[in-house]
Design goal:
By secondary structure, the chain is an alpha/beta fold. Helix content is 25%, strand content 27%. A 9-stranded mixed sheet has the order 23-22-21-25-24-27-26-28-29. A 7-stranded mixed sheet has the order 4-3-8-17-18-19-20, covered by helices on one side. β28 (506-511) and β29 form a beta hairpin. This is Adenine deaminase. Residues 370-384 have a biased composition (Gly residues).
């Protein structure tokens, strides 16, 4: 950015603009057209979109020659905790990729520590250049009666939190079976949100027919989950806003949407992206590229990242490059469908260049006791540290003891797949001797142990991945974030779990029977790190690599592991209380 010292420009000092962006090609999120224009900015607002060279005085000049000028990206559904970063650090790294506005649903950390955790998240994000809006988690715990989390929110709690500044929505209503079935607690939570006039975000994979109607009749009008193509069309046909994350962006889905007489409104969303993915591949810009590769026209992808989500969030001041709108802008290199940010402006101020925060912006700069600091203190985690209340285990804690006679017995097992988070219920025959299931060499074992000082330990066999000797343990386990361990031997499982407990929460991978191959400490609620983004990304990358080397191969290994405990995600899940048949919303026994 340079001073504008051009003589003879029109306008008095009172009429002077703060910034002129010249030489670029503006992209209209309304029409999909690209046209040459200069963009004028005064304060936080676009004060003009004018033909190139139109006289207008400006205090500073930004040369956008060869660049596309597009609206800042708006992410209408995501979870900051899934990045493993605190809100301030998250803002820095994602602003640099063009994401200027997010609606964050903090249901991970609120399940750990309740309303005060959400208040902490809001305060941590306050003052960043990124607009961070918030949804009150609707399911804390995700399924009451089938798991224990660190908090329990009812309708009165939700009603109070909806009145907080910056809170605009009820977070995704994951317990869709409870809504459809008329369960009083969920109907109460949804009811107070409707009374408040909040947005109601949905989560209802493959819900269809009369059940979908019953769900939507409660005012829940969006869905970001993976659905069969015919269900995507059914939901869109009924006016449910489809929010497409990476796993939803299949060519057949895009082709079916484009074949409709009219393309319905769509939002591209990130949902859950870890720090290493954001640093390496991008944030919402990455989802845009995925959508284009799947067949969505670049202009339609841009609209789904800007105008439509802005309208969804009732942010009528952004989402298009136009006079009077907020000057959240992304200057893109190359073709539109590359979604390659060169310069990012938020509120008329340059906050990032070439994928990195501007030093003078203050975003992501370490501050004493701050989110980018390891110094401790309230802003580095405060009341959200020390939340893992579990003893360091030994191998004996991973003996699966049962009240069954000696002999072979048929057990329920969970089978994963390398594509998504669906877990199939299957059967496996295992021997029992002396009251202990002899599972080693026949299956991997999953153990969930309550981390909040309650009693509760549940085991289940796991099939699917071809695992070498080793284990993974984590407190990042949706949504109650109890202590989850998967392994091939009690020794390896004990070693991985002990490392996570010592770290105050996080992820640890052990190869063999005891050597830690990788670890990612997450001492803030057991789900986030106070460290800088690059440090967290490096740890996440090492864990991802160690999981793949162990044999856990998946498009998103973090989500594949951590959603084994998500009792609202089909079809067989495990909590600290039992195995759960998600479709029936019932606990089921270990034996068949």
């Amino acid at each position: 950015m340079t001073r504008n010292d051009t003589p003879g420009t029109a306008g008095t000092p009172e009429d002077e603009h703060d910034l002129r962006i010249s030489g670029g090609t503006v992209v209209s999120a309304f029409t999909g057209e690209e046209f040459a224009a200069d963009v004028l900015v005064r304060g936080e607002t676009i004060s003009g979109v004018v033909p190139p060279g139109t006289p207008a005085a400006a205090r500073a000049h930004l040369d956008a020659t060869g660049l596309l000028v597009a609206p800042g990206f708006v992410d209408a559904h995501m979870h900051i905790e899934s990045s493993f970063l605190t809100p301030r650090t998250f803002a820095a790294v994602t602003l640099a990729r063009g994401t200027t506005t997010v609606l964050a649903d903090p249901h991970e950390i609120v399940n750990v520590a309740g309303a005060e955790a959400m208040r902490w998240m809001i305060e941590e994000g306050r003052g960043t250049a990124q607009t961070q809006l918030w949804g009150v988690p609707s399911c804390v715990p995700a399924v009451r009666g089938l798991e224990h989390s660190g908090a329990d929110l009812g309708a009165d709690d939700v009603a109070a939190m909806l009145r907080w500044p910056g809170v605009v929505a009820l977070g995704e209503v994951m317990d869709y079976r409870a809504v459809v079935g008329g369960e009083p607690r969920m109907r109460g939570v949804v009811g107070v949100a409707r009374e408040h006039g909040a947005l109601l975000d949905g989560h209802c994979p493959n819900l269809s027919g009369a059940e979908l109607s019953a769900y939507m009749a409660q005012g829940i009008d969006s869905d970001h989950t993976k659905n069969r193509t015919e269900v995507v069309l059914e939901k869109a046909r009924l006016g449910m806003l489809m929010m497409l994350q990476e796993k939803c962006l299949l060519p057949e889905v895009v082709e079916a949407l484009l074949a409709l007489p009219q393309l319905p409104p769509l939002c591209l969303v990130t949902d859950d992206l870890a720090a290493d993915h954001i640093v390496r591949a991008g944030h919402l810009d990455h989802i845009g590229r995925v959508a284009v590769r799947a067949g969505l026209p670049p202009a339609a992808a841009l609209r789904a990242m800007t105008w439509t989500p802005a309208q969804r969030l009732r942010l009528y001041d952004r989402g298009v490059v136009a006079p009077g709108k907020r000057a959240d802008l992304v200057l893109l290199r190359g073709a539109l469908g590359d979604f390659d940010p060169a310069v990012v402006l938020a509120g008329g101020r340059v906050v990032a260049r070439n994928g990195a925060p501007e030093p003078e912006s203050g975003e992501g700069v370490r501050r004493e006791g701050g989110a980018g600091s390891a110094a401790g203190g309230p802003a580095a985690g405060g009341p959200l540290t020390g939340t893992v209340r579990a003893a360091s285990p030994g191998p004996e804690d991973f003996r699966w003891l049962v009240d069954l006679p000696d002999g072979e017995h048929t057990f329920r097992a969970m089978r994963t797949n390398p594509r998504d988070t669906y877990t199939e219920a299957v059967e496996i025959v295992l021997p029992v001797a002396g009251g202990e299931v002899r599972w080693e060499g026949r299956a991997a074992l999953v153990r969930v142990h309550n981390r909040y000082g309650r009693q509760g330990t549940v085991f289940a066999p796991l099939l699917g991945p071809d695992l070498a000797p080793g284990a993974v343990a984590t407190t990042y386990a949706h949504d109650s974030h109890n202590l989850l361990t998967i392994g091939t031997s009690p020794a390896a499982m004990a070693a991985a779990t002990a490392q996570v407990v010592a770290d105050g929460g996080g992820v640890a991978v052990v190869h063999g029977d005891g050597a830690t191959a990788a670890r990612l400490p997450l001492p803030v609620g057991g789900v986030m790190s106070p460290a800088a983004a690059d440090e967290v990304a490096a740890g996440a990358r090492e864990v991802r690599s160690a999981l793949e080397e162990w044999g856990w191969r998946h498009l998103n290994p973090f989500m594949s592991v951590s959603t084994l405990t998500l009792a609202v995600s089909p079809s067989l899940k495990i909590t600290d209380m039992s195995l759960v048949d998600v479709a029936r919303r019932d606990p089921v026994t270990a034996t068949v």
